[in-house]
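Predict structure. Chain length: 414.
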Amino acid sequence: MKPSYKIISLVAALLLPLVAAHAQTDSVRLGYTVRGTVVDALSGRALESVHVSVPERHFATVTNADGDFVIKSDKAIGTLVFSYLGYKTLYQRTGDGNMKVRMSPESFQLAESRIISADPLEVVLSAIYKIPENYSSHPELLECFYRETIRKGSRYTYISEAVARMYKNSYRGGFQADRTALEKSRVLLSQRKRDTLSIKVQGGPTIAMTFDVVKNKDLLLNQKELDNYVFEMQPPTYMEGRAQFVVSFHPRSSWNSEYALYNGTLYIDTESLAFTRIEMSLDMSDRAKATRLMLVRKPLTLRFTPRELTLLITYRPGADGKLRMGYFRSTMRFNCDWRRRLFQTSYAAVNELVVTDVREPAVPITRQEMFRVNEVLNDKAAEFLDPDFWEDYNIIEPSESLEHAIGRLKKQIQ
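Prediction complete.
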């Protein structure tokens, strides 16, 4: 039976205390900062999750929901690289003040009919066969920024952020030896008495490691799981100037799986046959199966209704040309209501992690310091009020709505 990666824990009438901070990281001081906004050159629409990096360096981040970014370096930054699915990769000088970056869509110039006619399952199987060649073949120690947010309706009730280390073993092996550890973290919790339900997300930054689909083949990329799905070729696209196969998948209509399956899309480089981006959405047609996968525990009298679990994983090339995970985001939406009450309350939990730097040497994380899959970040994080918390780190810039939420939650605890 396929393993389930349950991540949501519901606790009634519990406001969590703030605990002591973890040790400070020893990463290089990042004294140079560049800020800016990335938009579509034609429509002016803000572009979210654009990858922003310093050329020939490891420093990187992504844009937020407003298209804003902040990136830091230990040396002056003269040029930044911007890459986004379906858009031309852009190298732009930083200049003075905030950058305004306009990205243009990439027009597809190859013979689409030839690419679309390829057998989708054969493309996927070929990409699986090429994983040892296309992905990092040696251990790496990655510095990451991680954020969790939870909303009750439209109001944020919980925000936590962390700097984490992620030790990734070679992609030639499994993910069991991979580990994460916190270096610095903080949390804000709603203090409203009417928030009678505390939502805990289990696993913290380890969630991204668990859902590394290319490495954890139990999720999708093994023959038994592939048999559960139908694969179809979609119109191709570009990523970082390279043509991509686009393969969609969905559960077989006649298949009676013991567990919830996924709908999704695989992006595969047409030359190297490397998976570059994976999008997955849990099939909600059987709510009981979806609940068994998502929910750890809940109060006896609470009813839990899953609505959405979506995953996004992108893979980035390093200086050696090999790919490794660059960005991860999960979105979980669900409703909760207490029995004998008329209305349900909607909740949304978003987790995201971006790899911001690569450390040398790749020192493994010990068992004593590792963050375990059954641990909860807001049980470990320190209070939120340190104004210099991100002084030496790349982060995902908070969106305007998140900035407002942080301000309101701070007022509650002052």
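Summary: The longest strand covers residues 302-317.
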